[in-house]
């Protein structure tokens, strides 16, 4: 009986993704650019994870969460970029309803988990800078594991809730999504019913999470900056470097979330540009931000890449 009911509820079995452009030359340029970005995302973030695992000096809460961030960035970009690269060579750019739902689920899982992770990382920096003597007591490994489990659980609950809302809607046409991947705001606009209540839920959920986390982060770093005024110059420079890197990532990531999910589901000309920045540019910049501004990471990378050379010299 259930199999007979589902086709009546969802008559649209495929969606058509409009992509970033209909111009063939622009599509080729976008393909090349995103392919380069994706390769660099994989190489940069995987290298960070390997470096943190390899170097025992980086076995601290800060780098534990940083390795989580790199892992999430790899997963997050993999949800959307490979499909977009394949669609560049397809005229129809079709995605099945089931694949669209799966893409939305993992997109929101990794995005929401990253928001929570960035907030936890801010708390970690607050404890390290404002209460350094008790840092390893407050941020012990048990606490780190519990926080890690909590942020993944929160991301999963958020994603399941959003995906469930989308699946239950009836879709009978149109079938064109004005983006290069499936996302909840664009998909629910294709439903054959009034979705204003669901749009309010989206704004109150994702929008509220983004705004609240952003406020918490701003307050945390304000307290940190006030605390740094009393530090000696060397310690202050290192702490400021770490905080500046974190603030840059937070601004880039949460800026997109606030722009997309804190307003009604109305397509704007800048949505695709912001989405492209969100899925490709931010995960690409994270390794650069956290390595070029972090002496410990740079030294660990030098040590990792120069290990074979040292053996050869012996």
UniProtKB/TrEMBL annotation:
Superkingdom assignment: Eukaryota
Residues annotated as domain G-protein coupled receptors family 1 profile: 44-290
Membrane-spanning segments: 28-50, 62-81, 101-123, 143-161, 208-228, 240-261, 273-292
Subcellular locations according to the entry: Cell membrane; Membrane
Membrane topology, as annotated: Multi-pass membrane protein
GO molecular function: G protein-coupled receptor activity; olfactory receptor activity
SUPFAM superfamilies assigned: Family A G protein-coupled receptor-like
Record-linked Pfam families: 7tm_4 (PF13853)
Keywords: Cell membrane, G-protein coupled receptor, Membrane, Olfaction, Receptor, Sensory transduction, Transducer, Transmembrane, Transmembrane helix
Mitochondrion among keywords: no
An annotated GO cellular component: plasma membrane
Major site of localization recorded for this protein: membrane
Keyword Cell membrane: yes
Family statement: Belongs to the G-protein coupled receptor 1 family.
PANTHER family: OLFACTORY RECEPTOR
Protein name: Olfactory receptor
